[in-house]
Design a protein that fits this description.
Largest sheet: 3 strands, antiparallel
Shape: elongated
Structural class: mainly alpha
Helix content: 40-55%
Order of helices and strands: HHEEHEHHEEH
Mean pLDDT: 86
Number of domains: 2
Strand content: 5-15%
Number of helices: 6
Radius of gyration: 25 Å
Length: about 230
């Protein structure tokens, strides 16, 4: 009996010591080491790829899209886009929750609807109509054939922060008119914020909408200060 109790106590002590060691190593040492390495080597990514305005205020993350809407007006169930700003891709995700309220998707994922789904076709048709109406300015109407695919479809994750250079270019005249800026200057702003393919061959050229709108706000501030 005494031998059994001694063996059990020895096993219990060994288990507790192993638990303590593993807790320290995996719960303290390893997280601190990984966090320290990330902060030293990749500080921007480790801190969430935050984007700061000229005043140092964090305005969003470069990896997650966000909405540029006006406050919901009386009689409307959904907010209208604020057409002073470049708009991102449609926000047609799977639903909402209390965490992601700014982009109103907040569940990451695709709709998983087939290309001939009636609801999807209706969404795309309405989105194309809205893009044409919103971006047509006097003397420069937008044709339905001018609207690129990313202007009327959400991304696979629903959180894509980028748009194509074609969709950004389609919005240039409307943004210039709404902000009292020249078309040439706004188009140059888009060119300056167009990223090429990763490593020259991965993906497609793209424009980060948040970074572009931050630059647009700074440009408006400089123009107003003249």
């Amino acid at each position: 009996m005494n031998t059994s109790l001694t063996s059990a106590a020895r096993l219990l002590g060994a288990g507790l010591r192993a638990l303590l060691v593993l807790t320290v190593v995996t719960g303290v040492v390893y997280p601190l080491a990984v966090t320290g390495a990330a902060q030293a080597l990749f500080p921007a990514q480790a801190n969430g790829s935050r984007i700061e305005a000229a005043d140092g205020r964090v305005v969003g993350l470069s990896l997650i899209g966000q909405a540029y809407d006006l406050p919901t007006a009386d009689g409307h169930s959904a907010p209208e886009p604020d057409l002073r700003w470049f708009q991102g891709r449609p926000r047609g995700g799977l639903g909402t929750n209390t965490v992601n309220t700014r982009y109103d998707l907040l569940l990451s994922g695709a709709t998983n609807r087939s290309a001939d789904d009636a609801d999807l076709l209706a969404w795309v048709t309405q989105a194309r109509k809205s893009v044409v109406e919103d971006n047509s300015v006097p003397g420069h109407p937008v044709r339905p054939s001018d609207v690129p695919a990313d202007a009327v479809t959400s991304s696979g994750s629903g959180l894509d922060p980028h748009i194509s250079p074609e969709y950004a270019g389609l919005q240039v005249r409307r943004v210039a008119e709404r902000n009292g800026l020249s078309v040439e200057r706004v188009r140059r702003l888009v060119d300056e914020h167009t990223a090429s393919r990763t490593l020259g061959f991965i993906g497609e050229p793209r424009v980060n909408v948040l970074e572009l709108n931050v630059a647009l706000r700074d440009l408006k501030g400089r123009a107003a200060g003249r």
